[in-house]
Amino acid sequence: MRHYDCKNYINLDCEKGMCALCKAIVPIDGENSNACPKFKPADKCSNCKNFSKPDKYGIGICTGLEKENWTYSSMNACTCSGYEAR
Ligand code: SF4
Ligand code: SF4
Q1: For the chain, where do the domains classified as CATH 2.20.70.100 start and end?
Q2: CATH number of this structure's domain 43-86
Q3: pLDDT number for residue 63
């Protein structure tokens, strides 16, 4: 897991973000991008019980809203009314 996948990650730009806990600047990927022991999974479709069958591009099926539809696994779910953490 990477900082980028953590609930405490605040995106700053396309290369880096900040940790809301320790206030460190952390990279999205590459060197030093691995998560720390305080990692908490971010609210994303990939972490939702209503997400299934992702293809090789991370596009899967959402069954948590009024109509079944496709969605990206990386979609931010912080405002989704159907989000249910796995
Ligand atoms: S809690 Fe750990 S894994 Fe999460 S953003 Fe902060 S340093 Fe990264
Ligand atoms: S219910 Fe919301 S968070 Fe869950 S898979 Fe569907 S769109 Fe994503």
Answers
A1: 1-42, 43-86
A2: 2.20.70.100
A3: 98
pLDDT digits (tens, 9 = 90+) for 41-76: 999 999 999 999 999 999 999 999 999 999 999 999
Atom 4 in ligand 2: residue holding the nearest Cα: 83
Whole-structure pTM value: 0.79
Please report, as a single letter, which amino acid is at residue 42.
A
Residue 81 CB-half CA count within 13 A: 2
Residues with CB under 6 Å of ligand 2 are: 45, 48, 50-51, 62, 64-65, 71, 75, 77, 80, 82-83
CATH of domain 1-42: 2.20.70.100
Distance separating alpha carbons of residues 52 and 3, to the nearest angstrom: 23
What's the 20 CA to ligand 1 centre distance in angstroms? Answer: 8
